[in-house]
Amino acid sequence: MYSEKVMDHFEHPRNVGEIENASGVGTVGNAKCGDIMRMYLDIDDKGVIRDCKFKTFGCGAAVATSSMATELVKGKTVQEALQVTNKAVMEALDGLPPVKVHCSLLAEEAIHAALWDYAQKHGIKIEGLEKPKSDIHEGEEDEEEEY
């Protein structure tokens, strides 16, 4: 069962679209479920996120977490945006079913991927930011499923 906030962000997502000439763009996916999330950031000279937009291909929870993530980083500094975790996204949405927690991880990774792109474009290092994974399951052992 989804919370009212999850349903609201799914049915009326905020900040959908692209930002032309974005300061940073990050794309992440989850090969296991097929969700793909792209986050666009417009960052001013003081390192403040003026605008944030997203495009997501995925389930309702993926759309809702993308929408909430954009709301959470708008107006924040790069360093503050880096602190937005999947847990913060889930809490802001009043929770997610256990099988949908990976959607909030995608949202966190999309923010990090866009920040990484911004840092690369500007030749800067963002303290605490590591190179993001393009697939949130990257590095995990492949688990063979038996049928």
UniProtKB/TrEMBL annotation:
The organism sits in which domain of life? Answer: Bacteria
Molecular function terms, GO-annotated: iron ion binding; iron-sulfur cluster binding
Q: Which SUPFAM superfamilies match?
A: SufE/NifU
In the record, biological process GO terms are: iron-sulfur cluster assembly
Ranges for the NIF system FeS cluster assembly NifU N-terminal domain? 1-122
Q: Matching CDD domains, A to Z?
A: IscU_like
By what name is this protein known? Fe-S cluster assembly scaffold protein NifU
Organism from which the protein derives: Candidatus Egerieimonas intestinavium
